[in-house]
Amino acid sequence: MEECKMRSKDAGLIFDDESIEYIITNKDMIELSPKNMIPTLYDYWVNDVEVLKGKGLYKAYPTNPYETVINSRPAVSFYNDNNPDWLNIMIFYHVLAHIDFFQSNRFFKHTWNDDFVGQALADKRLIASYRIEHGRWVDYVIEFARAIDNITSYFSLIKDEVKDNMSDKLRYYFEVFLQSEKGVSHAEVFNEVERYNKLKEKSKDVAERIFFAGIKNKYPELTTMFSAWQRKQLKKTKSDVLEYIRDNSSFLMKQENLWMKDILTIIRNSANYFAPQIRTKIINEGWASYWHDRLFRSDNRIKGHEIAYAEVNAKVTSLNRVGINPYAIGMRLVDYVHELNEKGKTSYDFQILLSAEERNKYNMSTGLGDNALFKLRKNFSDFSLINTFVDQDFVDKHNLFVAGKRMRKDINMIEYYVKSRKAGDYKKMIIDSLYHPPLIEVKREKTTSDLLYLDHKFEGKQLVFEYISDVMIGLEFLWGGEVKLETTEIYPAASTSAEMQFDYRRVVYSMLNKRLKRIEL
Prior knowledge:
This protein folds into 5 domains: 2-105 and 280-317, no CATH class; 117-153 and 239-276, no CATH class; 164-236; 326-433, no CATH class; 439-520, no CATH class. Helix content is 54%, strand content 14%. It is an alpha+beta fold. Helix 6 crosses helix 24. Strand 6 and strand 7 (451-457) form a beta hairpin. The model has no long low-confidence stretch (mean pLDDT 91).
């Protein structure tokens, strides 16, 4: 494994030297899976149900999962005790690429400094102590909080990462104060930016303090105006539903209920910690698969195991004719990005070529493939990867298509067929399969201490009706009063055309005393 680390770092992967590896059994895998392979995660009855379900499935369909890696500091990985040594070498390359992705991709930046395994243990002990004192009510609160942990404001944690390291005061001064409040010329703004940059080059730690000291006499009102601007920005900030309930529920503010706020915080923090993994499944697995293949095939320890490796690798990374294999699509897209940049196919000259033959032959041998890959790993999520690089050349190269299905009445069977080979259709199919929770916000102007009013921003998909009642019962408990949910529902509309038409109706669900009501607006 140490040799794998050296080879991986020589290839350009970046990861901490410290890592922890465990060899475990299939039984251990089944018992850890419901906890996302975090042994120290808090106990919850649903996990026990999932373990029983997993054991039942294993008896019917025995499988040997190869590995799992946890994003923590240090990173922790698990290996099946059925793996032969040569397979563990290949798998460790895969794991190291995962760790490189965890510790380099900007969507994980809020997790880079966290020992999540240790934090989870502290959370587990706290919940266990509450369970001794409050019994089953702890599980009720966990269940109610987990019902909405998919709509926590994960992106608020990383929104500033796309900006530079400029402070709020500097940003206000350059972007708001000078341009909007004072109306100075662009040339003067550029001069001020240049003055700050020169100070930063000389004394990075105190540059900002020296910079503002130099304009104190010219703009004495700056401090007051910046404070007022900060207050306005704070009012504009929107909390997610879980956070808003935790901080504003009069029921949770009661002394005897304060312990519930700790549980809501644990659930929310855990959800936000795992959020980037859900949004980078394809690119993360593709990145790891690309590097395990590239590094293991050049490792002399593959000798004598080439056929066995080819079989294992094919099982993991083969393309599905129907459905989506994230390992397969991700690996091929990563390789495609490498090829495009290695051959200079991201240039304008290539983009304007119309001949398929000329496009296939085009090769400028730039040597920029790896450089592009590491930029891809740093900046992209599943959505940006799919939306940017799934084009007609990629679809044609791998013979991809969108499969449809229809009923064959002559044989009384469902038949799958090639519905489309267009890149746009294939891209849409994958994007539609990506994780995209509903956008639900607290409507503050209608919310009171006795009423929590939620607004679902309709994005083309309606909420699942079967879940509404149970979720709102939990929200009513946590808020300590009535809960209303405004949403949009889709209904078939009467139409004379062959194409199906739909009506979109705005409705309000209300939950009070565990009774659900529905009103059309």
